[in-house]
Description:
This protein is an all-alpha fold. Helix content is 40%, strand content 2%.
Amino acid sequence: MALQVSSLGLLPWRPKPEPDEILSSWLRRVALGNSPKLHSFCHFIWPGRQLWTRDLDAVVDAGFIRELASLTGCSLEQASRTSLHSFSGVVFERVQVTGATRWVLPLGVYHRTRRRSGQQWCPECLAGDAEPYHRRDWRMAYSTTCSRHGTVLMDRCAECGSPAVPHRTEALECHVCGADPRAHHSRIADAAVLQLEHSIRAIVKGVSWPGRDFNCNHPLAYFALVRQVLSVVTANPRAARLREVTCKHYGGDPRPPAFTSKVLVPENLAVGERHRMMAIVARLLRGWPFIYVAMCAEAGVWWSWAMRGDRASIPYAYADVARLYLHPS
């Protein structure tokens, strides 16, 4: 391989991360700008290191981030923001090195390919990029829409149904059938979901705070509350009845969601199914907690049902509502 690192330890081609770009996307652009083969580049710079046989965005260590920042002349702060660890302390406490992390969509990594549709994208965003790249936001389960274009995200090739595996191709195309993901047609998103997810993104960016109605003193509590409501709507034993009464009063699609795994958690829903469920959640969160309480009462979702799940992860802001309004006493 003819690649040469300068005496200053810099690569010849060293693009900086784009706004909200995720690590794997940035590394892919760096690699293909310096070498015709991504894996050859990675082996040359990090010999013996298996980068693409795991979820690089989630399990990357600080040492690798420092090396990549140094090679590209990028600040460590800017480089660190590309990994999913940058959501720690806001969306979740920390990334789970082994096991699932709440709100992070699984990739189902198998060797160098992926069996799960954990990498979402917006065709219009990719088409409008000077150099197409994938966003951190697209790896999160709370993201089902594009706030900029008002559409539902994609998570599988429209031609063959394969998940996105960007590092398997040199051009931006499906690694199985070669279809261009920028050419896919996106459907218009539910207005209530657009509003909710726009607010969520503002909280993630630190430019907004959960509303006073939620009685949350920290974003972690807010995200835990939203996830608990989403879990009750999707996989609770009384979920079907709750969806029915909510959609009867406020609109939406009450059909049961189809999970992609036997583990019935929101992260195991394809984007279209999550969007349907987030539409119901968005309606239940309005005027918190009174619409939620009224719909739970009508559906028979009392305290014991409303508190189903990992009790240790249910925030006080939610548990207090369930205790005050949905407890028999």
